[in-house]
Amino acid sequence: MARIVLEGRPAVGKTTVALRLVAELRARGVEVGGFVTRELREGGRRVGFEAEDLAGGRAVLAHVGLPGPPRVGRYGVDLAAFEAVALPALERPAEVLVVDEIGRMELASSRFRAVLPRLFAPEGPTIVATARAGADPLVDELLRHPGVEVVHVTEANRGQLPERLVARLIGLLRGPL
């Protein structure tokens, strides 16, 4: 089982790489589960984030109009909505599980935090996650787990990463072509 963490600074393209990876894997017949986190924009301005189950459900994770608690920056976070979408998405069987993102908003959920060590365990599923080093002690611990491969996403490599990762994951899942 592979455990790959796409690590990089905010807005470098980690989610874009994850979404392209999902599309490419699905195009090759790989069952992909999990969730992604997308920006919500109004009038060209970011006003929040939504969590989207790759099976179709979605919910507002954070918004400037939500009171919180918790609050992360200018956003109120709706932990119940996040948990209702993300946690079931992480329980469904899949060949590859995508966790986008292991960030401050998501980590405000104690239930989400409790699931992560199991997902990253050696006997856990094949997982591709996005995170930022230094964001939280739990993230740093996960990045140090044996067998976890950290792939640094940069503006220079983000365009080539999805195909490179697809080839590796297909090889692991299906064996050499």
Taking Cα atoms only, what radius of gyration do you get, to the nearest Å?
16 Å
Q: Give the biggest sheet.
A: 9 strands, mixed
How many helices? The count is 6
Order of helices and strands: EHEEEEEHEHHEHEH
Helix content, binned percent:
25-40%
Shape: globular
- What is the CA-CA span between the terminal residues? 18 Å
Can you describe this structure?
- By secondary structure, the protein is of the alpha/beta class.
- It has a domain at 3-36 and 90-174: 3-Layer(aba) Sandwich (Rossmann fold).
- The protein has six helices and nine strands, in the order E-H-E-E-E-E-E-H-E-H-H-E-H-E-H.
- It has helices spanning 14-27, 79-91, 104-107, 110-119, 137-144, 161-174, and strands at 3-7, 32-42, 45-53, 58-63, 71-72, 75-77, 96-102, 127-131, 148-152.
- Helix 1 (14-27) crosses helix 6 (161-174).
- It is globular, with a radius of gyration of 16 Å.
- The two termini are 18 Å apart.
Topology diagram in text:
Blueprint: E1 3-7, H1 14-27, E2 32-42, E3 45-53, E4 58-63, E5 71-72, E6 75-77, H2 79-91, E7 96-102, H3 104-107, H4 110-119, E8 127-131, H5 137-144, E9 148-152, H6 161-174
Parallel strand pairs: 1-8, 1-9, 2-7, 7-8
Antiparallel strand pairs: 2-3, 3-4, 4-6, 5-6
Helix pairs in contact: 1-6
Give a short summary of the structure.
The chain is an alpha/beta fold and 177 residues long. It has six helices and nine strands.
State the main characteristics.
177 residues, alpha/beta, Rossmann fold, 9-stranded mixed sheet, 6 helices, 36% helix
